[in-house]
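Let us begin with a simple case.
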Amino acid sequence: MDRLNTVLILGDPGNDSGLNYLKTLIPVFKENGIEARLEEISLKDSSTPAPELDGVDLIVVAGGDGALMSLLRMLNHPAIPVYGINFGRVGFLMNPAREAHEVVGQIISGSCVQQHLPVLEATWKTTTGESGSAAGVNDVVLERASGQTVHLDVFIDGVRLNAYSGDGMIVATPAGSTAYSLAAGGPVIHPDVVGILATPLNAHRPVQFHSLQFPVVLPLKTTIRLVGKGVDKRPIRLVVDGEANMDIQELSVSARGDFVTLLRLEGYQYVKGLVSRIIGEVGDDV
């Protein structure tokens, strides 16, 4: 990380414990000659204006993974490094709240571990002919919006893979592989494996449907195209990192070509995080 001059600290006024913690960082940054400004923003409100990033070298935010997703979306997934502090529930992408001098010391010494998350770009057309797009670092979910299953044609780089019937399809990054995709039976992908994952949701098993029954791990440069069939009777919705859009006819997902950089505490190891946040600790008598 280059010379650190200005830090933008963002806290949600609805998260008192996180906001109070962030306030303890400001004097420590300042005593090290670094400008630090705190802004209170409502991360769950999509109408909240994005903070100004000119001259900012680092963003610090407190909350959970959902708060981080909302912030990255608000800022259009910036190139500026982000240090997240967990004041949510799971916080798989966040750091634990440590003493202020320890946190600031690791940041300014450059000893933090950098984690790079690929940004996915989703573009779609609706049943009324409108177009839309959104970006995310976690997952893109195309799923049924009624009691009817969805029928999809699935294309990988223009090659028709499958005529799918089921509850939907998840396209996830390695970061998103531990979220909805994992609950749907998908594999965990280490963040150093640069790729994307397509995981079917409750695929129909009868051979007449020929539905994809298993997850597929693909290169990051892959383009996945999903085309809805019979959407007048089988409506489809799209969710990109928690933000929903309705009446989808066709979806294309590919890497945007850039990455979000998260800073993790010194000594961070992905597998240790997997054990502590997802699997759960076990005894030593393995």
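The second case is a distinct protein. As before, the sequence precedes its structure tokens.
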Amino acid sequence: MRLAIAGPARERERLLAALIELAPAGFEETEIEGSERVEFALYGAPGELPELAPGRATLGDVEVEVRCELVPSDWADRWRRFHRAVRVAGIHVRPPWEPRDRSARVDVEIDPGRAFGTGAHATTRLCLLLLSTWLQGGEGRERLTVCDVGCGSGVLALVARALGVERVLALDQDPQAVEATRANAQRNRLELAAIEQRDALRDELPGADLYLANLTGPVLQRLAPRLPRQSWVAAGGFLRSEEAVVADSFAPRIAAARMTEGEWCALLFAPPQSTAL
């Protein structure tokens, strides 16, 4: 099925913020030709899509038009185009149908299954950049502990392990994400210290030197006070319009690095007493 949500282009950022919470596995975005409207499309089997009735609805306090229709016969090709290979800072992340890049620092193969993505989304790319920046910013950081909170299909955790981090933990509240991360770890012959189902906002979190948190703005605000102040945090998944409130929630940490792509933003937060990136 294809669930289409159309709204005013001027409200694009508000719709994006609402959709990333509603559909973290991703969605298509197209401009409606000849109008000042934008359409977002989600694909899935009956019962897997968000429960939005066709017709007029409200999403993120924005009035939208919702349509539900059968997917076109070329859906398999569309799905493959959506999950494409990406190269960031010499890191190559690809779905199984893309060829290996032997010139890359690391090449990680990710089958998204029903979890979040293969690395092609802007928020994941930005977090990969922050991870690379953190590793290069201090000697011996490969010997520290990295925890991927909300690991999805395991992209960030597996890249961290492939880059040489000795102890990597992956957590997600979704059992399908835990299953996908385990399968992708086996696919890449990478061993993680732990792959566990945990709710980051309710369950006890393990200690780590760096937390990777590619979530959403509201979730990051709730997560921030639960993380040890002496730890680094690579936070992504929020819009540039949310940057100030996200940064405030991580105080007294300071933003040591900032990455943006389009309307998306990611910040690397350093412990209050840190003197080096």
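Helices lie at 12-22, 75-82, 122-136, 155-162, 175-188, 217-223, 243-249. The CA atoms of residues 56 and 65 lie 5 Å apart.
Keep these points in mind for the review questions at the end of the chapter.
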